[in-house]
Amino acid sequence: MDAHNDDEKRLEAAREAEAELDLFDAELSGTLSGYRGKHFPEDHARRADTHQRHADRTKAQLTALEALLASDPAYAALYNDTFDRLRGAETATEAAIAATETAVAEAQQELADTLDRASSLPDGRKAFRDPATGDVYDENGRLVEGDDLAAIVWRDDAPTWQDYQSKRQASTDARDRLDDLRRYQTDVLGRARDRLTDPDNPPTPDELNEIQENIQKQMPAHVRDHLPTSHEGPAIERTAAVKPLNLGS
To answer: Where is this region: Disordered (predicted)?
Structure first.
């Protein structure tokens, strides 16, 4: 009988020790009902007050944008969707620029090769014959006549005027496409990112919808070719339901 009582006492003591350990662990994790809260209530009250003041300071240090994102789920959803679309467009634009830079280099090399194979005038200008008309033009498109025409020694593999025009146009088109991509990257995407990351003057819901619209409408076709499938459509309908907020309150 005494042995049974001893076992019960040891079991009860173990349970109490486990409960005390749980309370102590809770205190370490910041739970209000922790070990110190039970055994040292005054000290615990001071610690709770310190935690609250720290939380208040943290809240006060939030930027206007952070506070708005934290307090308005509908705004946060629209903002995050807009930023996601911006990132997708930025990534696609970078890929398009890289591909177009390669295309520019290739087009310029093909144009240079065409010029290298062309016949030359006495002053060094390149000459190209139009097989349809027999007319000869220099590399700047001026008609070649008279002594200059008579002085040309034609190469067997000389490119035609049409060959040269095609290569020159391909080079011009590639450079123009690259310029368009860089303008879109700077004027549309760059400005959108600047607006979205303004910590003290958050964009309104109307501005967010406008940013999405600008990204979509002004996007060059070559960017669309590199855009993720999820970003190909128009802005999602739920964005229109977000009401403008009073950012001054």
So the answer is: 34-56, 189-211, 225-249
